[in-house]
């Protein structure tokens, strides 16, 4: 396992990107839980953000594809608006221990 991020580096409800083997992993903290997704839209596979860590919509409510405006629910990764509605961001297996997020590899 490799440490991806300290929990203290993850603001509540706001997605952040971290480099990992196989590409960037998006982490979103919800209290003591963390969601982890591949930084790739399910319909074209594009990176979601224009700029590093610019993953959220203007209301900080959804993860947004900067290219097409698709919106993804930050706890499940489900697309709720846009061309891939009903699809989900690819989930990444993580483990939380010692106040940090860990990933295989
Ligand atoms: S690449 Fe799929 S909504 Fe932008």
TrEMBL record:
Every Rieske domain range: 2-103
Listed PROSITE patterns: RIESKE
SUPFAM superfamilies noted in UniProt: ISP domain
Keyword 4Fe-4S belongs to the record: no
Keywords of this entry: 2Fe-2S, Iron, Iron-sulfur, Metal-binding
Gene3D superfamilies reported for this sequence: Rieske [2Fe-2S] iron-sulphur domain
Keyword Lyase: no
GO molecular function: 2 iron, 2 sulfur cluster binding; metal ion binding
Protein name: Rieske 2Fe-2S domain-containing protein
């Amino acid at each position: 396992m490799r440490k991806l991020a300290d929990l203290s580096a993850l603001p509540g409800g706001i997605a952040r990107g971290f480099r990992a083997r196989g590409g960037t992993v998006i982490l979103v903290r919800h209290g003591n839980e963390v969601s982890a997704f591949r930084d790739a839209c399910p319909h074209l596979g594009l990176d979601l953000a224009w700029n590093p860590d610019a993953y959220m919509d203007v209301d900080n409510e959804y993860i947004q594809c900067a290219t097409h405006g698709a919106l993804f629910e930050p706890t499940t990764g489900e697309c709720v608006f846009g061309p891939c509605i009903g699809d989900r961001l690819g989930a990444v297996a993580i483990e939380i221990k010692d106040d940090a997020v860990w990933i295989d590899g």
